[in-house]
Amino acid sequence: MKHSMYENWILDFDTLTQEQKAELEEHLKACQHCALFAEAERSVRHLLQEAPMAAPIPGFRARFTERLAAKRAAQHKRQVSITLALSAGLAGLLGGGVIVSTLMLLLSSDTVIFRLFRDLFHVLQVIVITGSAGKALLGSLGGIVDPAYAYTIAAAAVVLCITWFASLYRIRSIQERRE
Amino acid sequence: MNSKAREAEKNWIEAARKGDDDAFTNIVDAYQGPVFNLCYRMLDNREEAEDAAQETFLKAYRALKRYDSSRKFVNWILAIASNHCIDRIRRRRLRLLSFEDTVPVEDHKSKQPEAAVYESEHQEEIQELVGHLDQKDRAAVILRYWYDMSYDEIAGSLDLTVSAVKSRLHRARKKLANHWMETNVVENISQGQGHETFYV
Q1: I want to staple B86 with a disulfide (CB 3.0 to 4.6 A). Which of A31, B45, B107, B135 is the partner?
Q2: Within this chain, do residues A11 and A91 fall inside the same structural domain, yes or no?
Q3: Same domain, yes or no, for A105 and A43?
Q4: How many domains does one find in chain A?
Q5: The pTM is what?
Q6: What is the ipTM of this complex?
Q7: Looking at per-residue confidence, does A53 or A138 come out higher?
């Protein structure tokens, strides 16, 4: 217990009062453990203060430039992939919209299938608008948000939209049945 | 750092923020030593330290727009390096726990000549010592002794309070002194040098 107190005093020597310093000096003369601890603390401090700086092998700057270029190329590739995927998705949605609207024109307005296509078309319209807004947002955040996070956020937003519209569709169907 | 060097550093940072890569590589040139040394002291492996130092500069490059110029640039970049190394050590431990991989062991025989020159017995002794500390204590000790950082600066770099830094440094120094004492006692006993006079 006493050793521990004097060890702490050795470590915080600069903050001690004159009386404490004198008491510590007296204790060090009598206690071999604390004297050894004081010596060890001095040795460690000296070793750390005198330790040289380790240097990297020459060419660090050139290796950094190469790595930066490689990272940039990878980032560019990712951005192109995202743009292509979003464009393909939007094209698919637009194509689907065109097919649905054509079918709507061909079918009679009182059939169940017509109503289904009409609602689906509305859902698709909202998805297309949301997708375009999302793409614009991702474009403006490019370089700030990590692409992995951007993918996750976009996927979560799409799932939420689908769930939302599915719920709306169900509510509307129930209301229609009631009417 | 004199006022001329500080002015040059400020200009490089401004230019790098505007997308000038050459300006940023000047920063890399200026700080590769301190950053590499910190990574090496933290990770105790030259190859891993090189990789960590390179990653530190890449992180700094990406985060340069968020750099607060009222803070010393060297402290900012060393903070990035410390936190990166702390994360690496954590991941290294997780890998060890999962038994999927092992910690890279220094192969002293295959080291490059430059490394062999400075990695003397003295260096190994230091690395062996700081290797006994947990990652945050190790970072605090390195920032204090190699970079003369104040408690405030260390707290800012490691996202700790000043009292936590003081407490960590106190604990770390105690641990290092105890380890030093134990090692020397064992060495002296094994060499038959008056072990009766040493506390065990």
Answers
A1: B135
A2: no
A3: no
A4: 2
A5: 0.67
A6: 0.74
A7: A53
